[in-house]
Amino acid sequence: MKSLFFRFASNFNAFLLRSSPRIFFRPFHQAWVKHQKQVLISGGGGTMLAWTLFGKSDKEESKTATEPAYKLSLPPDVQAADTHYKYYALDSCYRLLAKYEDKTEEPEILWRLARVIHDLGKNETDSEKRKQKIYKSLKLVEKALQNEGPSGNWAAHKWYAIILNAVGEIEGTKSLIKKANEIKTHLERALELNPYDATTWHVLGYYGEYFVE
């Protein structure tokens, strides 16, 4: 039983470090590591707590909410990009979406572009390239919000919050604190539009607790 938990813990750590949007909250990962050590020392079973803390997988979340109508109208290459992103094949995902960068005002495509460019930026080891990609993703998700229409676009708000946090990390702690209320506002708006997205709930809950402390 204990060896099974060791394997789970190792796989879960790897998932946290490569998973988006969770990757932008390093303190969240550190909290998990701290908890993991406590469980290993006590010999207790932390698997259920981990699933309770982080909720369902993206695949399970998609089954919870009603399939959105826009899914049916997305171009085949954008749908294919979603499949690549699902398996975190970022380069393949970006290659399919890159042609839309200067040619569309469709928010469903723009936030997807912003998402993959943000993740590519977070994976960059060169600080300047990382910064360029993060700011580029910010411009794209801002454009998505500008074109969301009266019905709103929950994913654009979610990714605006995530990317704005990444910008704050680049600019420093003071900048991140100044952006905190705006980030929180957009996470809340995302949940107004789609209350079924467990990841947004987790991020919002953690974000509020992080800045209260």
TrEMBL record:
Signal peptide range in chain numbering: none
Chief location category: cytoplasm
Sample GO molecular function, one term: microtubule binding
Lineage top rank: taxon: Eukaryota
GO cellular component: mitochondrion; mitotic spindle pole; spindle microtubule
Keywords: Cytoplasm, Cytoskeleton, Repeat, TPR repeat
Location of this chain's protein in the cell: Cytoplasm, Cytoskeleton
Assembly notes: Interacts with microtubules.
Protein name according to UniProt: Regulator of microtubule dynamics protein 1
